Amino acid sequence: MPETEDSKPRRGPADRSAGRDAPAPGGPRDFIREIIDEHNRTGRFGGQVRTRFPPEPNGYLHIGHAKSINLNYGLAVEYGGSFNLRMDDTNPVKEEQEYVDSIIADVRWLGARWQGMRDDDPRAGVIWASDYFQQMYDWAVELIRKGKAYVCDLSPEEVSRTRGTLTTPGQPSPYRNRSVEENLDLFERMRRGEFPDGAKTLRAKIDMAHPNLNMRDPVMYRILHATHHNTGDAWCIYPMYDWAHGLEDSLEGITHSICTLEFENHRPLYDWFIDAINEGRTPDGSGPWGRRIHHPQQIEFARLNLTYTVMSKRRLLALVREGVVRGWDDPRMPTIAGLRRRGVPAEAIREFCRRIGVSKVESTVDIQLLEHCIRDHLNRVAPRAMAVLRPLKLVIDNYPDGPGELLTAINNPEDPAAGTRSVPFSRVLYIEQDDFRETPPPKYWRLYPGNEVRLRYAYFVRCTGCVKDAAGNVVEVHATYDPATRGGDAPDGRKVKSTLHWVSAAHAQPAEVRLYDYLFTKPDPDDVSDDAIRAADSTGAAELRAAADAAARDWMSNLNPRSLEIVRPAYVEPGLADAPIGARFQFERHGYFCVDPDSDPPGAPGRTLVFNRTVTLKDSWAKIEKKL
Fold first, then answer.
1. What is the mean pLDDT of residues 273-297?
2. Which of the ends of the chain has fewer CB neighbours closer than 10 A, N or C?
């Protein structure tokens, strides 16, 4: 592969030890690996594999980006290559420093390692497309000199109108045949800021009758008088994505430019731009334009679609701006920041990405598979704890008054090395409201008058009655305990059919618990329902029907009004009082939870604790998988 100072890769071999905490999983030889294997066999790139993840910093990353990160970084590690994190910061109007910082944090958290990254400087080793602006500009001038680009005065609306359709050719711009000299002068004046936004563009001169609409004289540069987060006011013309994308890859020596399937129709343009620059160039630099620049291979794969989820940045931004969610890191969002705040481990996301693999066929993945991966990981690593979300007081009448006692509880039955903990037990406990019925339905085995149950890690107790308030609501349950059953087993061998969790009322730590559900009520948020329209029709009111018709055609009409339930006060065992932010636990019989950043810092007097439910204990995917 010929290299020049321009085409030479900006990063060396991957530091594979940097990725030791997140080894890229192997797997079946998907079509991308088959392409790379063939390139290595033929020596196309000299046996090298260099990949990149190039997000535009105009929003937070979501789980679809996690698939791309996992794929690109995984390939670099698997083939002993290198991986770049590049900010495609070519549009100053939509880019914000908040997005830059979040992207770096998310990629780092997912376990990807790029050359030059350091823990003391999050931005170390990050590549910025804006650092290539001068080189891109120089190459644009070269294309003008070659007669392959021209300055156009048509407005964006006029460009769109004259582009043509899939069945009709486009109309050439009246400025298409400007002389090279005039184009060079106008382009330089565009750079100097002599024209207002939108007054002129630089377009590639390709073919206005090309069957691929992307090849019909696409725009390469537009005028934007806006301050850039990296280059300040040095530029007022900015490259379009199609022009910049391949050149950035070329400058970094990327071998395999892996992107999602919507860019498949852009690949001919990706190749055309590099070929146009290479026209007249030679491997040894003896031609009139110097040495050939590196030409990567673009490869497309199907993007991730997930049930009950939207992935469009535009829609995610709308959810944030319209206050549907609390921010980009709301635990109901599919953003990596939201998943992290919800308590989803990076390891579970990587395993999910490994399981779904890559293909060229668009499909939608059941969100239950992601939940299965989360449960599978947390079941192995999350310590257990007892928490009562909807407390009901249980008084053990024959238990001695006083401070109570300490009982031994297992931290994680899946990990013997996790050991045990001490849990305080006393005469007055909290149990779940659903664990008592004064008149039990059939097959109800929990507490009811006369029934005996096991208290987890403690004793057998038998219900003797309850106390109600003036409105007839049960506010207190009474029971007796059998001292001989300490630890949860009866010496006489008698069995009980139910085991309840509990916390000691005198020792419990109050907490707020946020129970999250799917953000949308339907697997496909774009699936509009006729239910509202039929309901309006039944009233005979035309105006109601019109309103319902409009609502049914809006994807936001499928938002789940019960996607968040806040439970307070809940009570957790006292050992969680100083749990650090982000710590994950399995609340027995409830699900997996983590400490939310809204909690007070550990050790704060009267600390407020907030827990987010990551996922319930029920694993529907495991049942589905058995049927496959």
1. 95
2. C
